[in-house]
Design brief:
With 351 residues, this protein is of the alpha/beta class. The protein contains 14 helices and 12 strands. Strands 3-2-1-4-5-6 form a 6-stranded parallel β-sheet, sandwiched between helices. A 6-stranded parallel β-sheet has the order 9-8-7-10-11-12, sandwiched between helices. The mean pLDDT is 92.
Length: 351
């Protein structure tokens, strides 16, 4: 049995969730294997691959530009030393980006498998033709040795006792009612539906006796949530930066619905089996649609052929920004998220 090193140190949670079935298939097929993923998502990996010990985590937070140069150098060299200590005979780069390509070369493995890319022959000595025009699940499948079996889906996510308890503590003061999680942020501005529309959605949900909860993490999500709250007379529940990934999984598994932009949390909600409405604009849902029967993709119209993701030919991204609150509520109703309206009987007076 050859020693396989499987590389997927990706910074994006959605990419990881899509790739995990293939990463598991490779671990199952190769007893002497080591999987490298990003330490940011350690909890997700451990909850997707329970009892799996053949893991090595890429220390991305310690390599951030905000960290002292010496600390970054020590962290990176320590990680590369652990990588080489594995003495891989075969390395497979599933991510196919510059970071993972560099690690492929530094691994010291005699057989290095990866996708065609600029200067790819310097990083890999076995190139795999990859179809990046279909869903990314299929793109990762073409690189995996072997791939997970179709149909495309996420790995099941388990909850942890610690995550359940953290979630209960964070939601203990919330009123009773169907919880609808809302992620108003995204990694790119062109992926974000307008905060005023999210505020209107929150108001409509409250009138339907639902409990909208704003979720997210980091500076961009916090700024977007503050914009949403600024359009509301009465703020809605805000759990941004208050939950670990384990607690977020527990929250999603105990909620009734999810609405959000094309983002990692959208894929996480779908992976948890939560009825999901995903708002797409200039990004391609052919590549990034949620892999879940209880998920719906909304886009107002197809993008203009002259559009680029960060430059709208029609100005203001009507493909995304023209999506209406009513459309989202209709999708939530079809998914069974919204409570049935209460019918008040009319009593006719007798004279």
């Amino acid at each position: 049995m050859s020693r396989h090193l499987i590389l997927f140190p990706c910074s994006h949670m959605g990419n990881l969730l899509i790739a995990l079935p293939h990463l598991k298939a490779m671990l199952d097929a190769h007893p002497q294997a080591l999987l490298v993923t990003n330490i940011r998502y350690r909890e997700l990996v451990e909850q997707s691959l329970p009892e799996e010990e053949r893991l090595l985590f890429y220390p991305e937070p310690a390599l951030a530009a905000s960290q002292p140069l010496l600390r970054r150098a020590i962290s990176y060299l320590g990680f590369v030393r652990a990588l080489r200590r594995f003495s891989a005979e075969v390395v497979v780069d599933i991510e196919g980006e510059q970071k993972s390509a560099t690690l492929t070369r530094l691994s010291g493995a005699p057989k290095r498998i990866g996708p065609p890319r600029r200067h790819g022959r310097w990083f890999y000595n076995v190139l795999c033709e990859t179809n990046w025009s279909a869903h990314r699940w299929l793109g990762y499948a073409s690189l995996s040795q072997p791939a997970a079996q179709a149909p495309a889906s996420y790995l099941p996510l388990t909850t942890s006792d610690a995550g359940e308890e953290e979630m209960r503590q964070a939601t203990v003061s919330l009123p009773a009612g169907p919880r609808v999680l809302i992620h108003a942020g995204a990694t790119k501005t062109y992926k974000m539906w307008h905060p005023e529309q999210f505020a209107s959605l929150c108001q409509r949900l409250r009138r339907m006796d639902c409990i909208p909860i704003l979720i997210g993490a980091g500076r961009k999500d916090r700024a977007q949530i503050d914009r949403v709250q600024s359009f509301l007379c009465e703020p809605v529940s805000d759990l941004c930066d208050q939950l670990s990934l384990s607690a977020m999984v527990a929250l999603m598994k105990s909620s009734q619905g999810y609405v959000g932009n094309d983002s990692g949390p959208m894929h996480l909600a779908a992976a948890c089996g939560l009825p999901t409405v995903a708002l797409f604009g200039p990004t391609d849902d052919t590549l990034w649609a949620p892999l879940c029967d209880t998920a719906r993709v909304l886009r107002w119209q197809a993008c203009n052929p002259a559009c680029e993701r960060n430059s709208c030919a029609l100005d203001s991204y009507p493909c995304l920004q023209s999506i209406t609150v009513d459309q989202i509520l209709d999708q939530l109703a079809e998914l069974g998220v919204l409570p049935e309206p209460t019918i008040i009987p009319i009593h006719r007076a007798r004279f």
